Amino acid sequence: MPPKSKGEYIETDSGNKVSRKSQIYGTQNIILGGKSVIQAEVCLRGDLKRTSTDGKSSSDKVAIALGRYCFLSAHCTLRPPSKVYSGAVVYFPLKIGDHVFIGANTIVESANIGSHVEIGERCIIGKFTIIRDFVKILPDTVMPPTMVVPSFSIVAGSPARIVAEMGEAAAEGLDCRERYRSI
Fold first, then answer.
1. CA 36 to chain CA centroid, nearest Å
2. Which of 62, 82, 113, 168 is the most exposed place for a label (fewest CB within 10 A)?
3. β-pairing verdict for 88-91 and 82-85
4. Cα→Cα distances 76→40, 72, 102, 125, 155, Å
């Protein structure tokens, strides 16, 4: 998981560590909250943002907003959710809270992910899903579009369902500061 060489990451003024091997499109439409890690081969689609009916960009310039201490593992993809209106594709913002871990080979098209969330490897998070705070999504989970996951839940399966509730003591383990320091 940690990189082999120091030169693999670019560190921003706010402490974000971005792999030189990541694929980030539409950087002007992506907000990184600070001290986040974006590993190799991560694809962020900031170029997919809402446009007005005349084809020009709308006043809302944010396509993807990440909070503090987010950790995007290798080969994951984040793209804003979309719908077709009157024959045109319309994109909506993807907002992610603080201390969010997204596992390798995961695809995220959620509308909102709360703080202190852990998403396992090889998951598919469907369009317009809402994931509240303190949630753990187990590996290989497929969440259908528009699913809402309440706080303190553990989610698994294909299709996803809530399999357990997380205790407050377990929720304290969803802090990404140590992962950030390991890079």
1. 11
2. 168
3. antiparallel
4. 9, 7, 8, 11, 19
